[in-house]
Amino acid sequence: MTAKTSRKPARSAAPDQAAQSFTSEERAAMRERARELKAEARANRDRADGERDLLAKIAELPEPDRHMAERLHALVTASAPTLSPKTWYGMPAYARDGKVVCYFTPASKFNSRYATLGFNDTANLDEGAMWPTSFALTEWTAEVEARVAALVRRAVG
């Protein structure tokens, strides 16, 4: 019988030299950048998951809610790309830093006669002592789209 021997590969001197070639500040900066990249990857993954969930909810909606939600999604992603799509109470919503800025409540959700486009307090819509934070939508027209685009841009501005 022969005995098995395990061989360990020879270590290269390169890692030790690399470790010695960077200052502690440079190594700290590299660790910080690695944390940033992980956070960016997590945010991108969260954004993709949120958009997938939002699009699935939109696909479940009956007409005309589906059409309005699809148009709203296209408008928000084009005019406010900094907002992250997500669902909020099972409805399409768009958030900044995890806080919902605006959301769409389909008429079918609560058996209402109209859908609603709403804005939370994180939206920059303040105008004097009183301003609207919710808008009824009965259909999506070019005029409605222009007004919604202006509201969304103002909300994130």
UniProtKB/TrEMBL annotation:
Which residues fall in a compositionally biased region of kind Basic residues? 1-10
- Region Disordered: start and end of each range? 1-51
Stretches of Basic and acidic residues bias are at 24-51
Q: What is this protein called?
A: YdhG-like domain-containing protein
Q: What is the lineage of its organism?
A: Bacteria, Thermotogati, Deinococcota, Deinococci, Deinococcales
